[in-house]
Design brief:
Structural class: alpha+beta
Shape: elongated
Radius of gyration: 46 Å
Number of helices: 8
Strand order of the largest sheet: 3-12-15-14-13-16
Largest sheet: 6 strands, antiparallel, barrel
Number of strands: 26
Strand content: 25-35%
Distance between the termini: 46 Å
Helix content: 25-40%
Length: 515
């Protein structure tokens, strides 16, 4: 037993004073000189970790494109006349659907009908004259068999008359065909399947031949997307073809491209192929025009199509063959003065690990919030830490990549960690977007680095005991903080609550775990 109280002079003090002084000394001895329990070590911060996704990815360039119909037609009359009928209904997209050969407008046909009838009369007259000329020439040839009955000159005249009649028939038939065409042009029909615009001229108005615009028709399936590519990218693609990494059109190669609408975020759900490259660059912009061809079917029978001519779309153009890469969630990346980094666990043992700072380079962004990360060359110091290698160190000793496919990357709980901090981890699968990689992945069970199940149970029991021992202290702290609930800070790093159960990284149902 330790003796901490000093002796006191009590001769000159009265008895009540002595009693009070003794009580005061006893309180001081208990409060100031007794040894309390030793401070406990801080509890490790719980975090979620996952291994990077290793798969092949493609480098892309992104552009703004514009959709355009494969066929666009201005509907104009080929004859002049008064508009007497409009045979389609203005309205929604479905009502405006037309088929090839469907009549859209009608011009007053009566003048052209009369001209056609007159032309046919001239044809019949010419044919009658031809019949007479044929008969006269035939008789002349019979008479010429009798010597001296008819001169050869007269026979030749009958032969020429027959030929003249034949020519007249041909001319009148041509005139009748022209009249027939003009009559048929009074019925203005759709030359393609597509969607027609509203009528641009009303009934009873005069329509001038090859001048008056009546409507426009655009085809809908397939649809084109035009976009401009800078010459640097085109040179890069040409070098890939020269090096044999890509096949040109002449070698049977195809160039797929993807597009997405402006309201679809980072998704590019529509796939097509490149089918046109301009034969020269635009000298004002230094760009080359490219065109992609995309299918544009109906969403369901009778429903409108998704893509319409004239839309602005986002174009994703692959500029190289697929290459192996590592992918992580974008939320796992940190930024330090413009440099990207990840927090990775090292010295993993018994469900705990030490946080390490790992700088990385980022590659192209992928669908579903994933990012390509490229490892940097690092050197390991004598203390066991990884540091970025300088140019001199790269030539002197062995290096290590800053990130590998087997590293445990912290994907949740980043706000509560820092380098060299010991954390308690729960391993889960790197979240995969269902739209890009198939059905949702089943989350992995928590992986504790223990020798057997009994050791796991012992850890859980120890954590439960620590939580019980600190329950009263936490209650007192909560009582003090209740006066200012709006300013209550998050749980500290040394919170002794049991580790959080594994949960999807998008959410954190365990409120006790610092986020």
């Amino acid at each position: 037993m330790h003796r901490c109280a000093k002796s006191l002079r009590m001769r000159s003090l009265p008895v009540p004073a002595l009693a009070g002084l003794a009580l005061f000394a006893l309180v001081l001895g208990i409060a100031g000189c007794s040894e309390g329990p030793a401070n406990t070590a801080p509890q490790a911060v719980p975090v979620d970790v996952a291994r990077p996704i290793s798969r092949e990815v493609t480098n892309y360039e992104y552009y703004t494109g514009r959709t355009e119909a494969e066929t666009s037609i201005n509907v104009q009359a080929r004859v002049t006349g008064y508009l007497v009928a409009i045979d389609y209904v203005n309205g929604t997209e479905i009502k405006a659907q037309v088929k090839k050969g469907q009549r859209l407008f009608k011009i007053d046909p009566r003048p052209y009908q009369a001209a056609y009838d007159e032309a046919m009369g001239q044809v019949n007259l010419a044919k009658a004259r031809l019949t007479l000329a044929i008969a006269d020439y035939k008789r002349a040839k019979e008479v010429s068999k009798t010597p001296g009955a008819i001169s050869q000159q007269d026979v030749d005249k009958y032969a020429a008359a027959e030929e003249e009649a034949r020519a007249e028939v041909a001319a009148t038939e041509a005139n009748s065909e022209s009249a027939r065409l003009n009559l048929s042009f009074t019925d203005i029909t759709s030359p393609i399947d597509g969607q027609v615009s509203r009528n641009l001229i009303d009934l009873k108005n005069i329509v001038k031949q090859d001048t008056t615009l009546l409507a426009t028709i655009v085809s809908e399936d397939p649809i084109y997307v035009y976009f401009d590519v800078d010459d640097h990218t085109m040179r890069y693609i040409q070098n890939l073809i020269k090096d044999g990494l890509l096949k040109s059109y002449s070698q049977g190669g195809t160039f797929p491209i993807d597009i997405g609408l402006t309201d679809q975020g980072n998704d590019f759900p529509y796939h097509g192929t490149l089918d046109y490259v301009a034969n020269q660059l635009d000298p004002t912009t230094g760009t080359l025009q490219l065109r992609g061809k995309f299918s544009n079917p109906e969403l369901r029978p009778g429903a409108p199509r998704l893509l319409k001519p004239g839309e602005f779309v986002r174009v994703r153009l692959p500029i190289g063959p697929p290459q192996p890469a590592l992918l992580v969630r974008q939320a796992a990346l940190g930024t330090d003065q413009g440099r990207k980094y990840l927090f990775v666990l090292s010295n993993v043992k018994e469900g705990k690990g030490t946080v390490e700072y790992r700088p990385v380079e980022v590659g192209p962004q992928q669908a579903g919030g994933l990012q390509v990360v490229k490892p940097m060359k690092m050197i390991r110091t004598t203390e066991g830490k990884l540091l970025p290698a300088t140019m001199a160190e790269l030539n002197e000793g062995p290096t290590e990549p800053s990130i590998t496919k087997d590293d445990l990357v912290i994907i949740n709980g980043l706000q509560s960690v820092q380098p060299d901090l010991v954390v308690h981890y729960s391993e889960t699968a790197m979240p995969l977007p269902a739209s890009d990689f198939g059905p949702p992945q089943k989350q992995a069970q928590p992986k504790q680095a223990t020798d057997d199940g009994k050791q796991d149970d012992g850890m859980k029991a120890a954590d439960t005991k620590q939580a019980t021992d600190t329950k009263s202290d936490e209650k007192k702290a909560d009582d003090k903080k209740s006066d200012h609930p709006a300013q209550t800070p998050p749980a500290p790093a040394d919170d002794k609550s049991p580790p959080a159960k594994p949960a999807p990284v998008e959410s954190n149902p365990d409120k006790s775990a610092p986020r």
